[in-house]
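Quick one:
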Amino acid sequence: MDWEERREVTTKTRRTQSAQWTGTEEEQETAKARRTQRKKMEEKEEAAAKQLIGAAIGVHKELGPGYHEPLYEEALAIELGLRQISYSRQRPFAVDYKGYKVGQGRLDLLVDECVIVDLKTVESLAPVHLAQMLSYLKAMKLRLGLIINFNVPLLKEGIRRVVL
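Output:
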């Protein structure tokens, strides 16, 4: 049996095993409910992210690059309000270490209680910006974050999607 045939057999075996899961009926129902809940949350995140990006593009078209972060935050808050998109600004969150509260962080924006937004006005995004967003997502126990750098000629080039 060559490598390709062996891979095909392994793939078929895995599919069969996953399709024949033998958990109790209650466990299967619980797993199904979790999948449904996860799918609904992902749909909510996607809708919020799409609306947010549209609002950010509107702000960038109007103001362009070159200003400081607080100005874009204020303008984006206005735009989100005009579009009736739920958000909170400078949202505090607890930072824990081994079960002890060691401090507090702040999010630039939290959209629809499910998408973290970190606004930037930098030459280019650095690895530390990604690390920062990952820390925010872990601390808030959320899955989706957007880093939006307004210091670019075309905003779509300044948006970084981060999924935990």
